[in-house]
Specification:
436 residues; 60s Ribosomal Protein L30, Chain: A; 3 domains; 5-stranded antiparallel β-sheet; 9 helices
């Protein structure tokens, strides 16, 4: 695939997303170049890593999704490539350069198209796409610790702009954490109007497009430990991505009834968070249930609380310096459902997600146990619409699913849920009580 700017001894991996297989791995590749045949009808991911450099990921679409050849991440591609991939050819080879940047503390990484509306801190749809790229970059570079800094334009007071930029930074960071980024690897910082990058400072007449340039977000590397032994293989990363996609699909056809006095601003569309699982393995529900109640919890550990400031809000346009009047309590009340009660498939779950005493009988899958009631903002309620909670002593058992029989539950547990919650297990419930 051409020259890699003279970089030797890199790790080069190529994954075919169409056939879902790793097709090339070059460890400590001695040459600064490599060749990759591109077969029509395939989507490839190419990941190049070298200690001391920022990993480079490329996506190649070859005669797929409307592209004769679309190559994301390359600086320069030979313009004659389309001739090589004509209708008469099924394989083509291109010559291209892959540029890699050295990684160092203090280095700033550009985030394109991450803008905010005037006096707003919630993310635009296109901003989420850009943050997804940031998340991928952080996965490819597990040794990075970064600061996500938000900047405002010069309109409004310096104080309100500093606070607004802090909310914007927290909104972006919350999105990334909610998508699986370890909260220890990223910090949010609001700079306000301290760093204006064009002439649009205080009392300067500028067009809206000029002001928007200053409403931006940047990444800065503040910690660095780029060791090869920290790298997950591209094959493992892809398998993990598939499991994360699977979690999004585990919704069990939950239906939400929005009643009088309720507010529905933003739909729940949050993919999987990274999950840490305790070592305890549940081998028998009846034999181990009492033991499980004494453990910290099942499924994911209490790693962090998602900052509610990351929720989308929809409000009337206000001046930048007036935005300070909107409190964090206002944020927490928007972008989520605020009901007196929530009805899901005939089950009533209160706003606080406390056990309601609803006399449900049937089979469910337990994915989490906690000795404290989990708040509405917890990840588990963002991922699943139909959580049913069973109270057993001091333990709250969080369950999902509606199954016609145990066999159906066991099949789904084995083929789907265990991939995401390895210690999940089946429970039988009679009149709202756990059957031991």
């Amino acid at each position: 695939l051409g020259q890699a700017k003279g970089i030797h001894n890199a790790l080069i991996e190529v994954y075919n997303n169409t056939s879902e297989e790793l097709i090339m791995i070059l460890e400590d590749h001695p040459d600064p170049g490599f060749k990759l045949p591109l077969v029509k009808g395939n989507h490839y991911t190419i990941l190049v890593r070298k200690e001391g450099f920022i990993a480079k990921r490329l996506e190649a679409y070859v005669d797929i999704e409307g592209c004769i050849l679309c190559f994301e991440g390359l600086d320069l591609v030979n313009p004659a490539v389309s001739d090589n991939l004509s209708e008469k050819n099924t394989i083509g080879v291109i010559l291209a350069n892959i540029t890699m940047e050295k990684a160092f503390k203090g280095q700033k990484l550009e985030i394109n198209n991450l803008y905010y509306d005037f006096a707003r801190w919630h993310l635009r749809d296109e901003s989420r796409d850009e943050l997804d790229k940031v998340l991928t970059m952080m996965k490819d570079n597990p040794g990075f610790i970064v600061e996500l800094g938000s900047h405002t334009d010069s309109r409004g007071s310096s104080k309100s702009n500093r606070i607004l930029s802090d909310k914007r930074a927290r909104s972006a960071v919350s999105y990334l954490i909610n998508k699986g980024l370890d909260k220890k690897r990223i910090v949010a910082k609001g700079y306000g109007e301290e760093v204006i990058i064009n002439h649009c400072k205080n009392n300067v007449d500028c067009a809206e497009e000029e002001h928007q340039v200053n409403r931006r977000t940047e990444l800065k590397i503040i910690g660095l430990s780029q060791q090869a032994d920290e790298w997950m293989s591209l094959d493992e990363m892809k398998r993990k991505e598939k499991m994360e996609e699977l979690l999004e699909e585990i919704q069990f056809s939950g239906q939400i009834k929005v009643g009088e006095g309720q507010v529905l601003v933003a739909s729940k569309n949050t993919p999987v968070d990274s999950i840490q699982i305790i070592n305890d393995t549940i081998t028998s529900t009846k034999d181990k249930l009492a033991e499980v109640f004494q453990s910290e919890e099942i499924g994911e550990q209490e790693g962090h609380e998602i900052d509610e400031k990351g929720k989308e809000v929809v409000k009337d346009v206000v001046k930048e310096d007036e935005q300070i009047a909107i409190t964090s309590n206002d944020i927490e009340k928007e972008g989520i459902i605020i009901p007196t009660e929530q009805t899901i498939e005939g089950q009533v779950i209160s706003k606080e997600k406390e056990p309601t005493g609803n006399k449900f009988s049937g089979i469910k899958i337990a994915i989490k146990i906690s000795h404290e009631a989990l708040p509405e903002s917890h990840d588990i309620f963002q991922r699943h619409d139909n959580i049913y909670i069973v109270k057993e002593g001091t333990a709250n058992i969080y369950t999902i699913g509606i199954f016609k029989d145990r066999a159906e539950a066991e099949e789904f547990l084995k083929t789907s849920v265990k991939l995401v919650y390895p210690t999940a297990f089946i429970v039988e419930i009679v009149d709202g009580n756990l059957l031991r």
